[in-house]
Amino acid sequence: MARKKQFAIIGLGRFGGSVCKELNQMGHEVLAIDLDEKKVAEFAEFSTSALQLDSTNELALKSSGITNFENVIVAIGEDIQTSILMTLVLKDLDIPRVYVKAQNRYHQKVLMKIGVEQIIQPEVEMGKKIAESLGSQKTIDSIELSADYSISELLATAKVNRRSLNELKIRPKYGVSVIAIKRGEDLNIAPMPDDTLQAGDILTVLGLKKNIRHFDQAGL
Q: pTM of the predicted model, to two decimals?
């Protein structure tokens, strides 16, 4: 079972609220913070604790117990000035990992200059994901592991029907590893080289993004 983590989310708009619900559903401890009392009340059931406070106030943040949290997500993108001030306060409090939603390129550049490493641009990231999906007839879903690597789910075509992984030589040819094969309700974790594929199988592959794109474009 995955280790339970602690997250504090500042800003309960569409993005922050969505992240709050998902993390709570995954079983993590979530502290939800917003200046708007109505939003705090709305997300009380989707968090371990929900607080209404001015998060640019260092004393108020300290009193919330936020320094006990390893991960803090600043989900206020619209008010760039507030976002930057809040981020500076969090850095002064020595929070180990601060994730900040950037509204635009200017906001991103300022965040980079003050030393924020985890910058989130949900609209850009979703746009990339949609473009990749639209541009591919095979890609079902993709999880970004780093700037270079990802895990993707691809739909097997008729070209691979009844052919084994060994015969297809996917890793030597394309530089990606097939780490799972799903066929209907059956899931084959860590498939063997002599396992055969069928059209309609869902292949979970791991590798460099460029290699996965190359494999996808091969139309297998």
A: 0.59
